[in-house]
């Protein structure tokens, strides 16, 4: 079980990448041992990333988009970015949109290792990188040398919304009940969430409620399942987490949903938004696709068309319904200002956390 901590930097989003493990120092272990382990892990991940991209570069050299396409998930298999990559692969294969579509997983540092390695494929139009809010946040959190400015963003695909939940037997019946208790004694209401994006949502709610985010008692959990367990065993009293991760527990009656973090009510989700209840928090966990830098306008147009064709397939439509994604497609001239606004917004939240 993780110990509560206050105002500490966030862990990378488990839906986006393999988060670092919270380490308990065994007897006889020194900070030097731990530092060596962490540095060794980062170096190993980077070496794996370089090797993987070397293979991609060799396989894709001289190939056009229709004959060979690689979709990179900057995370381990099974997470949210991996799901996007594999659903795209399935939709493109089933509809003949590309003859040979492969998915490559490249986890590490919230996705920034894969992002950094994309610079090795400059001008190669037949590689796509899955990213999103978590990747943008990681570039800010880690002060990454490579940012989204170093690739070619193509499209935002959809948004996934967080939900504020408490155990079913919680005394907090409404979001106001929870916020009132939290405001009265911030440290006495421990929060949890499945990753860095969820902590950003809690930070945003704290600001909307007039609390100092640094005073928040936030327990970092390794994924949505661990966050639910922390709620059910009493370690935490409230959580922010992705709606798809929590829907089963809500419908079974084990968790009570107090608010959906979305700009407006979502059809099919019978949960009032935080905004409807007077808390203007709307941070969404969006997913995007990018290509390497250095591709020409013709390639951008072709890739954008491929993405749009993929989103129109029955296979992709079924995935949108299955995972409760809220489609929000942004391409063309609207994409750059959207990303700039999100960068400013997330940077502000990190500053408020003292990270």
Using the alpha-carbon principal axes, give the shape. Answer: globular
Question: Which radius of gyration do the C-alpha atoms yield?
Answer: 20 Å
Order of helices and strands: EHEHEHEHEEHEHEHEHEEHHEH
Q: Which bin fits the share of residues in helices? A: 40-55%
Description:
InterPro entries: BUG (IPR005064), Bug_dom1 (IPR042100). The chain crosses the membrane at residues 34-56. Residues 1-29 are annotated as: Disordered. Keywords: Membrane, Transmembrane, Transmembrane helix. The chain is α/β, with parallel strands linked by helices and 355 residues long. The chain is 41% helix and 19% strand. The strands form 2 sheets. A 6-stranded mixed β-sheet has the order 1-8-7-9-6-10, with helices on both faces. The protein has a 6-stranded mixed β-sheet with strand order 3-2-4-11-5-12, sandwiched between helices. The two termini are 23 Å apart. 46% of the residues are buried.
Q: Quick recap of the structure?
A:
This protein has 355 residues and is an alpha/beta fold. The protein contains eleven helices and twelve strands. Helix content is 41%, strand content 19%.
Features of the shown structure:
single chain, membrane, Tripartite tricarboxylate transporter substrate binding protein, six-stranded mixed beta sheet, 11 helices, 19% strand, disordered N terminus, transmembrane helix, 355 residues, 41% helix, transmembrane, alpha/beta
């Amino acid at each position: 079980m993780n110990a509560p901590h206050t105002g500490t930097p966030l862990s990378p989003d488990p839906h986006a990448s393999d988060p670092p493990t919270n380490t308990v120092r065994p007897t006889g272990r020194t900070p030097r041992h731990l530092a060596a382990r962490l540095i060794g892990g980062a170096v190993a991940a980077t070496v794996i990333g370089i090797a993987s991209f070397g293979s991609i570069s060799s396989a894709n050299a001289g190939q056009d988009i229709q004959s060979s396409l690689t979709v990179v998930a900057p995370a381990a298999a099974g997470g949210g970015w991996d799901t996007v990559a594999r659903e795209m692969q399935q939709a493109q294969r089933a509809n003949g949109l590309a003859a040979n579509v492969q998915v490559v997983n490249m986890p590490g540092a919230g996705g920034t290792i894969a992002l950094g390695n994309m610079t090795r494929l400059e001008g190669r139009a037949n590689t796509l990188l899955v990213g999103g809010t978590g990747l943008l946040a990681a570039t800010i959190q880690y002060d990454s040398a490579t940012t989204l400015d170093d690739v070619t963003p193509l499209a935002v695909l959809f948004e996934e919304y967080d939900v504020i939940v408490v155990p079913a037997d919680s005394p907090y019946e409404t979001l106001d009940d929870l916020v009132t208790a939290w405001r009265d004694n911030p440290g006495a209401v421990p929060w949890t969430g499945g990753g860095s994006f969820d902590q950003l949502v809690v930070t945003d709610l704290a600001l909307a409620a007039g609390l100092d985010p640094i005073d928040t008692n936030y327990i970092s959990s390794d994924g949505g399942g661990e966050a639910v367990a922390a709620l059910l065993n009493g370690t935490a009293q409230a959580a922010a987490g992705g709606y798809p991760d929590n829907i089963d527990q809500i419908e079974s009656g084990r968790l009570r949903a107090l608010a959906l973090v979305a700009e407006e009510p979502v059809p099919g989700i019978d949960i009032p938004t935080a905004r409807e209840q007077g808390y203007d928090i709307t941070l969404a966990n969006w997913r995007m696709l990018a290509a390497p830098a250095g591709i020409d306008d013709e390639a951008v147009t072709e890739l954008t068309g491929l993405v749009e064709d993929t989103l129109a397939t029955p296979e992709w439509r079924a995935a949108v319904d299955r995972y409760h994604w809220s489609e929000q497609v942004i391409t063309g001239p609207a994409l750059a200002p959207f990303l700039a606004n999100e960068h400013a917004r997330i940077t502000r939240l990190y500053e408020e956390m003292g990270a």
